[in-house]
Amino acid sequence: MSDYRLKLKALLHDPIDKQFVIWKLKKKHEEVAREYLNFLLYGETIHEEEIKLADQIASAISRIIVVPEEESLKKILDEKTKFEWEEIKFIDIFSLRSQKAGMPDNEEEVRKKFKKLGDLKFNTSDERVKVYFLFLWRFLPEIFPWINTHPADSRAPNHSIYDHLVQTSAIASSLPKPTFLLFTIAPVQEYISTSRKTSDLWSGSYILSYLIYKATTVILDELGPDNIIYPNLLKQPLVDRWLYEKFKNTQILDIFKDEEYFKKFIDNALLEENLTIANFPNRFLAIIPFEIAKDIAEKCKEKILKEFENFTNKLDKINEIKEAELKKETKEKILKHLKNYFQIYYVYLPWLNDSYTDIQTILDEYIDLVGVNERYKIIDIIKKHSYYKPTTVGTAYSLLVELVEKFLASRKMYRKYEDIGEQKGEKCHLCGNYDILPIKWDKLPRWIVRERERLCGVCFIKRVFPSILKDILNFSSEIKFPSTSEMATVLYKTKMEEGNIEEFKREFEELRKKTDIPKSVSVPALNGHMLYDVDGEWLFRENYRKERFEREIGKTLLESDYKNIIDILNKIKKPPTYYAILMMDGDEMGKWLKGDKMPKIGELMHSKVRDVLKNFDENFNEILTSKHPISASIHEGFSRRLTDFALNRVKKLIEEENYGKLVYAGGDDILALLPVEKVIKCAYELQEDFKNVLSERASMSAGVVIAHHKYPLSIALNKVREALKNAKEDYGRNAFCVIYLSKSGEERKFGGKWTIKDFFNKLICIIKEKEISKGFAYEILEVIEKISDINIVEVELKRILRRKFRKDVDIKKYVDEFTKILREYNEKLKDFGDMLIIAERIFEN
């Protein structure tokens, strides 16, 4: 177990208002740090060797401050880079925006709040230091919002004091030999896309996210949340739930219950809508002590294997499957399938051999495995001119991260074989990997398996996982997910006349009494609507057939039982039959995390320091113009922004503003279901918000599939991945691609940079307002398929448009825009024709 007394001291080894103390109050920051610590731990001191060493390593990780090797020149540099109070800045490392550093309002602000915290009573001293540490780790950025822009160092003001303090505590608890642990689980896309129902899709995403969370709990329990570098765990709902359990038997809940930030914490920890977002990636990077690295890694692995057992044990609590008689040997088979299917990999890499100043060994190993490159060269130069002496292994953080990634990639090439016996029976109808389970399938309700559908252990767990998670997290109700039919009809429901809704609802409830048709759910934006719990499939009159009720519901009905419903549906407009799948991904995220997208070192220094360094040594110009190496602060800041985007922006844009349903949001990875009319608009808004959260230099690409609601979901998911790949490869990233899949299997595709969406939206408006007659798109496509000369195609395009637009429409502006876009598709004329047809098809269906 971690030494929380040491961690707490390390977390407070600098005052959280350090620059305010130094430059405004003109006090010694070490004395103020001790004062704040003594409010919590009276009589304690921060002067311990582990903390001093951890501080030196953490400083070297995030701060690049260089000096001439001559001591006399260093003194000149120190003299020339003293600051006035008003000169303290903070530079956002992603956007490069410079702003006045965040500061407390006055000298008493921090002192008062620490004093209030110090008045808490605890049962034991161990509980005191642990709860204080966890509370400060979680709430310092919310109690003192300015801390996020309060620089740890005034000369390199590109990382916050909070990040430096957290890194120091993580390193302190990992001494004497800090070590990276990189842990992952696979497969990802294969597991998620093997889905027949939308609930399968959500379950697959959530299970992977939840398993990684469970693996991280080993480090949470034994070391602390600060030891996980990526993903950053701050404000993660499941981690807040873990923290809530630590706080609930202390005074914390009573003392802070009225604080707004604490109320949000409680909601984040307990609200089902937050806890059911799959937002953990399939890997994590942690700093841990070398001497227990193997043990920790194996415990993380064992935690996942134990969770598989937990899943199978929870099956006994699902009432709907008891009649299927899941015997002991059946559950053992499920467990074998799970353990064989999921592959767990990890590597750990110590930062040092014997000395924390031995950077040369890291450089030598890097050359052997990677070679000499820009990253190597800049670390080698920084090592020679580092401001902080002695230079520590923290300087080589970026090289160590790259090495541990390469080691993991090599490890994943070797897959452990586990004998689960010969698979010689009937294969799973969903994945085809393993034998089906020996259970009484006809005794299972239709919401679990369709008629004659048979599943293996992996797919069976995925199918019933909403019920399993309900028990694991003690939810009040089972998790449900809107169907593809529901997604096709969401906006249709909002446009139905109230009288028709009431009449249909009344008749449908009578039918439900006879058939036990289960209540479903719609998208969150439709909550409160009269048809919220009536699946969209029941708005299609062709679904009211005797044989279908027998097959899907297991009930024999007479036509008279549903005649009134058909009469109602016959007198209203038919519902749309197509819905959209949206998949988005940040562009070149790997390069961001490796440091290839980082700004120059000089751009992240205070201008006064940068100007002085320029005149000292030509080596400094090379340093100042080189890319800033990746650091723990960058990793954590990057992850925090992605978490904020995923939890607070993505869900709101998709579910509240665009009538969609979020499947997962793992930072820069998004999967969602949306109405066709909303999907391009939503995708564009998401990528714009992504830029706002992360950086104007960042971008997202999107794949969109528009599919018939009866189209096989697993195939549609493969196509949306293909669309995303096309957006990145064929359209050059920062782009989108749409694939249209008709019920008959016809496929059409178009895409382009995000500016194309303006024309597509205008095109849809033209068609919606019937300003152009039907069939124009097919005529234009026919020309494109016959003629390859774009000049001739342009002439024909203008001729067709003049003939097809309504006579009362001023078509000049439209013709000019059509021809401009045609020219942009010079190399992909078929895509231009398909775009026109897709726009027309949207309103045909």
Describe the protein's topology.
Layout: H1 4-11, H2 18-24, H3 29-40, H4 49-62, H5 71-80, E1 89-91, E2 98-100, H6 108-118, H7 125-143, H8 161-172, E3 178-186, H9 189-193, H10 198-222, E4 228-230, H11 237-247, H12 252-256, H13 260-270, H14 272-275, E5 283-289, H15 293-314, H16 328-341, E6 343-350, H17 359-369, H18 374-385, H19 397-411, H20 457-472, H21 484-495, H22 498-515, H23 546-553, H24 563-570, E7 578-586, H25 589-594, H26 607-614, H27 618-624, H28 632-656, E8 661-666, E9 669-674, H29 676-693, E10 700-708, H30 713-729, E11 735-741, E12 747-753, H31 756-768, H32 776-786, H33 790-804, H34 812-824, H35 829-844
Question: How many helices?
Answer: 35
Low-confidence stretches: none
Range of helix content = 40-55%
CA(first)-CA(last) distance: 61 Å
Strand order of the largest sheet: 8-9-7-10-11-12
Main β-sheet description: 6 strands, mixed
Q: Per DSSP, what share of the residues sits in E-state strands of 2 or more residues?
A: 5-15%
Q: Report the mean per-residue pLDDT as an integer.
A: 92
Radius of gyration: 30 Å
